[in-house]
Amino acid sequence: MADTTIAKVRKTDAEWKEQLTPEQYRITRQHGTERAFTGPYWDSFETGLYRCVGCNAPLFRSDTKFDAGCGWPSYFEAVSPDAVTELRDTTYGMVRTEIRCGTCDAHLGHVFPDGPPPTGLRYCINGHAMVFEPEK
After folding, report:
1. What is the CATH number of the domain that holds 111?
2. Structural domain of residue 104, as residue ranges?
3. What PROSITE patterns does the database record attribute to this sequence (predicted)?
């Protein structure tokens, strides 16, 4: 049986700052968020694949994207169970589930249990944490 362990991407803070724009760095490395209805992809429904801005790992397919009306790109399922990791987030007096890239630990957003079938999940993701690869 083949080893399917994902190799983690590790970089220094200086390397991340060199690679990412200031907004991408603030969101993915400092656990920030973009204001609703301002980031890329919240109102885009092209066919393709959304990848992590930090390591280019595949995160979400366009056929799992839906309009949640929240102002951030929303998906009901990640491309695979190991594409993202979940962590308990208790900042700002709330209890939420933070989503990070499974490969480079970039902060992506949060997941909520109020999405559509078949999963009932709403992955609410910062557009600046992703790059879009259109289907060829």
Report:
1. 2.170.150.20
2. 13-134
3. MSRB
**Encoded tokens for 113:** 């249990």
Q: Is 22 helix (H, G, I), strand (E, B) or coil?
A: helix
Tell me whether residue 124 is one of the annotated catalytic residues.
yes
For residue 75, give Cα distances in angstroms to 13, 19, 94, 116.
Answer: 29, 26, 22, 9
Both tokens of residue 12?
Answer: 């220094």
Give me the tens of pLDDT residue by residue for the chain, a chain 136 residues long. Answer: 444 556 788 999 999 999 999 999 999 999 999 999 999 999 999 999 999 999 999 999 999 999 999 999 999 999 999 999 999 998 888 889 999 999 999 999 999 999 999 999 999 999 999 999 999 8
Q: Does 104 show up as a binding residue in the annotation?
A: yes
52 is in an annotated binding site: yes
Position 110 in a domain? yes
Q: Which of the residues 27, 124, 129, 130 is marked catalytic? A: 124
